[in-house]
Design goal:
2 copies of one chain form a homodimer. By secondary structure, chain A is of the alpha/beta class. Helix content of chain A is 37%, strand content 18%. Chain A has helices at residues 6-22, 49-53, 66-81, 94-98, 118-129, 145-158, 187-194, 238-248, 261-264, 282-292, 310-314, 333-343, 355-358, 364-371, 386-394, 402-408, 417-423, 434-446; strands at residues 2-5, 27-33, 59-62, 87-93, 134-138, 161-164, 170-173, 181-182, 199-203, 227-232, 297-302, 320-324, 349-354, 375-381, 428-431, 451-456. In chain A, the strands form 3 sheets. A 7-stranded mixed beta sheet of chain A has the order 7-12-11-13-14-16-15, sandwiched between helices. In chain A, strand 15, helix 18 and strand 16 form a beta-alpha-beta unit. The longest helix of chain A is centred in the N-terminal third of the chain and has 17 residues, at 6-22. Chain A is globular. At the A-B interface, helix 1, helix 4, helix 14 and helix 17 of A face helix 1, helix 4, helix 14 and helix 17 of B.
Chain lengths: 457, 457
């Protein structure tokens, strides 16, 4: 639940509401508005709240009176929670909030997800039986729990590969869960991964495309001639579709959660890399995370260009959840880590943030300190907006000039994240070797409250 | 000019665009959009940019092709600059930006401001001649240059009092400029100031109202029976209206800038308070600013509840400009100081920020360091959102409970602004007495680049 005061308060959260909206995160968004009488006047905070909210609202209402408020709130909650999940924004004028006559409403029934067409299930099963190289591209609840378990059984039985879009919301991993490979951000790498497949079955996902168009480059990394088939589209229950598909393939009912899936097929195992040593490197940092990630951790990943190898190094460690930036609006890591830690106080949260992204919302460090949240924040300080630099090079307009380069770089002066953290009450350290990084991670995972580790790249 | 990448980039600036929109600040807002072809696909950063921009756009267009782009940009600039000033948002799809055929357009003529009705001028002159206690409530260009000079001549000749709304955008002050009193934020104080007036003449301003409505309290601090008359309304040239009013009153053509106004009437003088000594206090801090403010400084004031007495203590010092938060969306001080320092590199900028407000946008400190801007930032660390606490008490629902109080407070842990500044490359100091504050201010005003002073209240 996000609570904002007035239009500007809503505006302050809007960039991450974009991410939540893309991720189909269920959010009830309550926005205060002036008392209706006061809206006749041209006061400073008057604004078109419905206008500001509309681009990121799946449901939008201004509550009309105190009696209706309870019913409106219940409807907002039910709408937000119905699959695939969405943002319900309820605007509450001050006089509606302070007025008499409020009634606690019954929670309405959740809108049921659309059932997947039986013919689509039959067709997908036929594709999988054909033994043509096939991938399943998973999204939403196909990446967790019983949905992922069913996908794992299908993959084990048919040889199909499980993939996730680069911008997925949440994935259950480790502890024997089926391994799902993320399609890389970089177009050439995505095309390289996808070139072997002649069939792609979409389970809640869209056809993969590059984030940005380019004047000359392709934007679809799927191989030419690959048949793309939609098993389940947004608004359907992807997990049910996968379970139906497994049944259609004659696979016995298996695990009721993702981590039983490979156990069923006898291949359950945890492989944890050894702790790395030596100088800081992107590869070494990834291995270090894999070496010491605690069981049941929640990893929030906005490591951007510094995150190469992280998902590979953690694919077979203990059970954990991986949260990514679904909407591409950078600055999600620290606030999302706050949300994860508040929701799951018994779990450890590892927040992996690029320095450029972290600068958008570093105020969340103070919230971590205030609430005593068990979050270990890693800031990858490469002092550059690497994605911008790469996208520029993709435009085919030559090398960036001095001014363009200056806009991509974050140095001059270099950010001192240890000082920034200290300023907000979070103890911080700078790791200057992989040994120091491992030690700091372990301290973070066992200590109480938040900590921050800066690694310079 | 604000340049944003995609919808979320625009969203990141939206809360301060609210302030700029309320202030009628001329802004050309260029927002990048995906190439049109790419918009057919459901990619992560796809968003309804026009929807996000609309609530704060006085002019809004998505450029349709490369040939039209130059003309669109010229029209955006002319629209933004026409009185009273506004926000022109131009959305540029990537293919329009990289396409061929661009043409540099002629700048179109600025739309002329509506002339003030001659009968309104006659009526206002009659009101002023009546010698009934009268105030002129000034806004926009009535608070600077020839507009303020004319207002000063009128006030000197008729005894009318010059007032500004609490949320004004910019005011020329000091160096003999006419003294304009700001209507206080606190309703009871505003009503106290206004109770003597039987006539109020609005020059671009609206009838004063409280920021927020309350269930029981009044929202208009104007005395009952006070006649309110609009000389010039938004879209007119307030300065011209005041010059016409001065002429109607038979006042000779005087100074061509505000600071000549009192010189004309023989009362030009600068009165600078002596440097205060002793323990930190709100009153002492205000006097210290008055004692050492350099000539031609730009003061950005978001001191909120810690700013009592600041404008009084600086009313008759050397010439300076005062910029306030017109829209009530807190977090304007540091970014606005960046803008002022970039626009006027030869002037010193004093940025007065409450700690709660400063937390919204403290990233601007890094920009100050990077650009070597001569900004002296004062952070008033009272560790509370004092306005929220006050507005709560105005609701008449008793004392706040523990949870409500916790939402108003900024302590636990206390913010260390000196560490935060150091983290972004800005040297900082904590002033523990008025002597230390004066020394730190002087060092800030004479040194190169930014500095920060934390004062604990």
């Amino acid at each position: 639940m996000y609570v904002a005061a007035s239009g500007p308060g809503l505006a302050n959260g809007l960039a991450n509401l974009h991410n939540a909206w893309r991720a189909h995160t269920p959010i009830v968004n309550i926005v205060g508005q002036h008392a209706r009488e006061h809206l006749h006047f041209d006061t400073p905070l008057k604004s078109d709240i419905e206008g500001i909210a509309r681009p990121y609202a799946d449901w939008l209402r201004t509550s009309s009176d105190s009696v209706a408020l309870g019913r409106d709130a219940a409807e907002a909650m039910a709408t937000a929670r119905a699959l695939p999940g969405g943002i319900a924004t309820l605007i509450v004028p001050a006089d509606v909030a302070w007025g008499d006559g409020g009634v606690v409403a019954e929670a309405p029934e959740l809108r049921a997800a659309r059932a997947t067409d039986g013919r689509a299930v039959t067709r997908a099963a036929a594709m999988l039986r054909s033994r043509v190289p096939t991938c399943l591209l998973l999204s939403g609840n196909a990446l967790v729990g019983i949905g992922l378990a069913a996908a794992g059984r299908i993959a084990a039985a048919t040889g199909a590969k499980l993939l996730a879009p680069y911008p997925f919301a949440r994935m259950e991993r480790g502890g024997g869960a089926p391994v799902v490979e993320r399609i890389p951000y970089i177009f050439e790498q995505a095309a390289g991964l996808l070139k072997e497949f002649r069939q792609m079955i979409l389970v809640g996902a869209e056809v993969p495309r590059s984030y940005f168009a380019h004047p000359v480059k392709e934007s679809v990394p799927v191989a030419a001639g690959c048949e793309v088939f939609t098993l389940a589209s947004p608004g359907e229950d992807y997990a049910s579709a996968l379970i139906a598909l497994a049944a259609e393939l004659g696979l016995r009912e298996g695990a009721t959660d993702s981590r039983g899936a490979l156990a069923d097929s006898g291949s359950r195992r945890v492989e944890r890399p050894g702790t790395p040593r030596g100088a800081i490197s992107i590869a070494g940092l990834a291995v270090a995370v894999g070496a010491v990630l605690p069981d049941d951790a929640i990893v929030v990943d906005e490591s951007m260009t510094s995150g190469r190898g992280l998902m590979e190094a953690t694919a077979r460690v203990g059970p954990h959840d991986w949260l990514a930036n679904t909407g591409g609006s950078i600055g999600i890591a620290m606030p999302l880590a706050v949300g994860a830690a508040v929701a799951c106080p018994e779990r450890r949260v590892l927040c992996l943030s690029a320095d450029g992204s972290g600068m958008y919302t570093m105020q969340a460090l103070w919230t971590m300190a205030r609430e005593g949240l068990n979050v270990t924040v890693v800031v990858y300080a490469n002092r550059v907006y690497g994605v911008l630099k790469r996208e520029f090079s993709g435009l085919g307009i030559g090398e960036p000039g001095e001014k363009a380069l200056s806009m991509f770089e974050i140095g001059r002066p270099d950010l001192d994240w240890v000082s920034l953290a200290r300023g907000m009450g979070v103890p911080g350290t700078r790791a200057e070797s992989l040994e120091e990084f491992v030690t700091a991670l372990r301290a973070g995972f066992t200590g109480a409250g938040p900590s921050l580790i800066q690694v310079d790249l």
